[in-house]
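thread: overnight batch results

M.L. [08:02]
morning all. the overnight job finished for the chain we discussed friday. pasting input first so we're all looking at the same thing
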Amino acid sequence: MSLLPPDLPRLRTLVTYLRGELSRTEQALAAAEEREAATRQQPAPDPPAWLVERGIGVGRLPVRVHAGNCWDTHSRCTPASAGQIRALLAQGIPACPHCRPDTTLGVLE
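M.L. [08:03]
and the structure it wrote out:
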């Protein structure tokens, strides 16, 4: 049992249609490959070395400090320098218990 039509005119129509679909599919594939190549050429930026987690609400005060590669960071984190992290730790802002930036920076309580 064949799913294709048996007569020549309908087979030619089907071939013409499929060639058009193949052409459109190849163009879409080429465009997708170009986009992927463009994203591969741009290296991802280096993550910041230190992060400050800020609270919610007016003022968004610092609530915790993290190392830049910490897995427990949230969307409320902003990059910071080592000096800023040391100053926040000296002010009593707690260090993340997972990445321990206070230990890495040599800041003792």
